[in-house]
Amino acid sequence: MKKQPDAEAVITSIRAPYRWLIRPERAPLIEKAKYDAFRTELPFLYGILIAIACGLALTHVRYAPSWLAIYLPLPLGAACVVRMVYWLRTTGWRRPATSSGNPVRIRLGLGAVLAFGFACWALALYPYGDALAKSNVAVGVFGAAVGCAFCLVYMRARPVVVTIVALAPFAPLILFSLLNGEYASTAIAIDLVLMAGALAFVFRGYYARLAQLIRSQQRLARRREWAARLAEENFRLANVDALTLLPNRQRFFLDLDALLQARSGDRSAFAVGLLEVDGLKPLDHLFGREFRDHVLKEVGRRLSLLANPDVIIARAGDRTFGLIVRGNVMDSQLRQMGTMIRFHLEQPYNVSEKLARLSVSVGFAVYPEAGAIAQHLYERAEFALQHAKTVRRGDTVVFEQGHEKAIRRESEIEHHLRRADLEKELSVHFQPIFDVSSKGIVAFEALARWKSPVLGVIPPTDFVAVAERTHLIHALTGVLLRKTLDAASAWPAQIRVSFNLSARDLSSPGAIDTIIGIVLASGIAAHRINFEVTETALINDIDRAGEALLALKRTGAHIYLDDFGTGYSNLNYIHRLPLDVVKIDRSFIADIAEQESARIVVQTIVDLCHRLSLDCIAEGVETASQVNVLVRAGCSVMQGYFFGRPIGGSDVVDSFLSNGFLNEFSGHHS
Ligand code: C2E
Ligand code: CA
Ligand code: CA
């Protein structure tokens, strides 16, 4: 234990001059490559030394004393044999565990010392023997000097050290031969000096080039590694949604394609799902974009917990997420999965001490029944999702054959709507809006009718949706509004007209300008016109919708909120818009005569409207008892089959606006 510091001190004291003599090689890879090259060359070198030694011993045994010719080189030869066997047996690269000293260097240093020893021994033989024997000594010194230089160059000894050590043994040789007048030997020695010098130079170049080659290989490897990292990052960016960290839309379709390709042989089922999150837009408006993004991030986190090797979940759109489900894809299992997803996503979101709730709809399409290519599967999942949103609110819908028929009908409607002569085929029916307190019609709602020469009469619920999807809606709105205002111009001035606008009309500033243009050109006072808009139309882009409504309102027209209660139903939020009247959806009216709970809901809506200084209209009133309940609840303006079904434009005056009708009707409901 006590020896430790002494040994270290010795090592450091040796290291200083050693460091000057031998420059360290910093790159282990270069050292390894050089070592590998060297390892195979060194045994030959020892072999040559041994052969030279044997030759010298044989040529000089006759002239020199045997201790010098035979016994002295014996340990040297034995050491060379041991080293040769050692180098022949070394395999692989074993780096020393400790950094103090480099065993490879030490082993090579040994080689250099042995070679130098040989040179000295050979020199000692020089005075003996004849001219030929002396030449042999010169050759022996040359061999030893070359071996020595070879080792030193490998060890990165300074060139001056290599030169001195390799050439030094020749100096006495040249000196002796000159002194003895053996000029031929001098010439041989000088030639050999030059050759030894040249060989040392060649070794240096060889190792330098090797090091250079390795360095450039290392650089290349580093660059390759960097490029691979970059490609990996690119791949990540191109395949991951930055906000939710789920796979993105592109990844979703790549996975879907890959799955379809794998399934083309066995056709075992899997499902493509789409889920849409509702309620983000209001968050954006109430609490800002950042809050909404945080909620979306949390949606992503919750969804990622539901993903597993059989369930891939990706972000397919702003508020839609795509699913690929393998394994259990029976309808009941998919519906169960939809319920589970909805349960997780509909739990409250608590972000920055604010609470948010979302609603979720899910649609699935199963391969191969619903489609054999990605696009079909996606479209059908989308259809199932729409169905879940509109028909079975909040439910999970799995695409089925009945939907297939609906899709076919939609494309049929689209096909004929695109070719329709709108001016000729579209017409407007009117339904009265009745004020029970004044016992009179206050307005008519315009309801679009399309009679296709090929398909016959198509209900507006069917063709308006198609027109919205295909952007034909603007053309439709224009034609319908002109016809509506044209018909209304024949009515008494106190009767207003209600016209339904689509979400698309509100989201396009150009469309609003056109609508205002039509109003101004109609000759009808704009204050007689009501524009009906639905909540969903407003919520999709409330800023733009707000601007559109303001522009309409500036003409003097009124704004009605249609189908209240079927959409997001946040009056506090909607009240920020310039609304005049709320139309309570007919689904709330249907049961008010029979059910106390339905009555309470309607009463609450009516009270809320009054508190917000909005008038209300009850839609879908079909019976006298409903009328009575509504009157008691404080809602006196109504619309429904009880007061009159929608009828053709030209019949309005005859049927509703003649005194006879009004008198008869006033008696009818009271
Ligand atoms: P809406 O605006 O809610 O129109 C009222 C719908 O309820 C009309 O159906 C009407 O016929 C029906 N209705 C009226 N009273 C009763 C009743 O007492 N009981 C029942 N069960 N139904 C009643 P319609 O004409 O089929 O229109 C359906 C929907 O199509 C409308 O709903 C509206 O959203 C849309 N629509 C109609 N015309 C147009 C239009 O010109 N432009 C746009 N963008 N949409 C329109
Ligand atoms: Ca309406
Ligand atoms: Ca309505």
Which terms summarize this structure?
TIM Barrel; 3 domains; 5-stranded mixed β-sheet; 670 residues; disordered C terminus; Alpha-Beta Plaits; binds calcium ion; 8-stranded mixed barrel; alpha/beta; 17 strands; binds ligand C2E
Please provide a written account of the structure:
- There is one protein chain.
- The protein is α/β, with parallel strands linked by helices and 670 residues long.
- The chain folds into three domains: 17-218, no CATH class; 249-399, Reverse transcriptase/Diguanylate cyclase domain (Alpha-Beta Plaits), CATH 3.30.70.270; 412-565 and 578-665, Alpha-Beta Barrel (TIM Barrel), CATH 3.20.20.450.
- The chain is built from 28 helices and 17 strands.
- Strands 8-9-11-12-13-14-15-16 form an eight-stranded mixed barrel.
- Helix 2 runs parallel beside helix 5 (103-125), helix 4 runs antiparallel to helix 5 (103-125) and helix 15 packs across helix 17.
- The chain is rod-shaped and about 155 Å long.
- Residues 95-101 and 666-670 have low confidence and may be disordered.
- The chain binds ligand C2E and calcium ion (2 copies).
- One calcium ion (CA) binds at residues 562-563, 583, 619.
